[in-house]
Amino acid sequence: MNIVVIGPGAIGSLWAYHLHQAGHRVSVWSTKPHSYFKLRLDESPAIELANNQPRMLQQADLILVTVKAWQVEQALLPIRREINPETMIAVMHNGMGTSDFLIKHFSTNPLLVAKTTHGAYKLSDQQTCHTGKGHTQIGSLNPLGEQCQFLSQVLAHALPECGWNDNIQLALWNKLAINCAINPLTALHNIKNGELAAPSFKQQLTDLVSEVASVMTLQGFDVDESQLLAQVYQVIDKTAQNYSSMHQDIHHQRRSEIDYITGHLLSVAKLHNLKTPVNQKLYDAIKHIETVGRNHD
Question: What reaction gets catalysed by this protein (predicted)?
Answer without folding.
Answer: (R)-pantoate + NADP(+) = 2-dehydropantoate + NADPH + H(+)
